[in-house]
Amino acid sequence: MSDDLGTAGSAETRPPQAPSGAVHQINPKYLFLVASITVLVALAATVVYVFFEQEREPVTYVVVVVLLFFALSTASSLLFANATALKGTVMGVTISIVGPAALWFAGMLFFFYMLPPEKLFPPEQSLDLESIDDVLQIAADLERRHGWASYDDWKTEQKTVRELFDDEESHTLSSLLAIMFETKDLSKVIEPRVTTVFVYFEQGVIKLQRIHGSREGAKAHIRFQSTPTKEGATAKSALFIGDQRFGQLVLEKSITDLTARGRRGIEEISSDPVDCFILTIYDDPVSEDYLVVNMRRFSNAAAGTVDLAAASLDPSFPIADSSLWYMKPALSSLRHPPPLVFLDARDKETDIERINQQLQPWLAVLDSNFRAGRIRDETARQLLDKVMAKFSTAVPEEESLSIVDIPRLLDRTRVRAYQLPRAEYATLMLLRRG
To answer: Is 110 helix (H, G, I), strand (E, B) or coil?
Structure first.
């Protein structure tokens, strides 16, 4: 009996149980959290679409706006009392929208009214091409849109030189066209690195040029003849062909444009990778000059890396100004005589030391072979003699000057140096001395 009394007493003192099916009130802070997350996700999707989506399409635009207003209306209804209502009659049918859906629908209608998709995504206009002039005009507009200027416009805009495009324009233009359109169906070098330095003296100019890269076919064809700036002037060039042996650059062969006349200054190179050096002496003293590195000469893809520099060892005529341009054939070659277009290659200046590092291996090879008498081509050896004589005359205070000292001499001058890691077609440098 004591057990019954104990059981009854415990039942009377037990706390009341909550009836099954009771509704718990949701904490308002959770509603705020859900609303915040919804808004943030919608805004993030909008930001990604606006700033990071490369190809925007009308359908994506509409979907993003619809989802954005759905999220905003849902969030606002969770946070605030929503009494929005839309009522109307369409074709005799009464339509009524209330609550969050009304806010969502009204916001979308207003947004699409102010900024319809047709305004952001205008339909592409069909091209009505009735003549070749229409095609040429489209090509000219496309080039102009990408910053390319026709020859006439470019000549007016550039401020570096004057004489080259006034009294000497016919010869200058003829040379530029010949350089730009020299094309031969020969295997060349794949994306070569072309490092070129022009050094100006009181009488004449010297060009130092290194070309290296992988050959395209069984043999790479390198054209090493050069064209002087002044009409009637001459240029003499030598080509030195190297090879890699046990990680060291060695001289394999030397040839000049005098001993290779039958091949029009084009030499075949079988070593891979290709590594060669062109040495040229121009006898024309110039106060204004144009320097061209045409990638089509060395690469059928017309692409590679260009290092280009100019220095003056004539203290009376230092380099006063220079500018760098891309040059290529015009798409609308029949519309803009002459058929050349130009693009400013600004902000490409570099340190001459980087260019000297590219030339240094070849200068060391030439110096050692020249001193040891291992340069077999007599005209190439004579050309090297003339080069060193010019440097020695320009810097008389230097005793026992050698070829490897050339970079050190360039560091003393006011050098203009440029580097184009992804050069295409031709690179044109204009300079004025004085």
So the answer is: helix
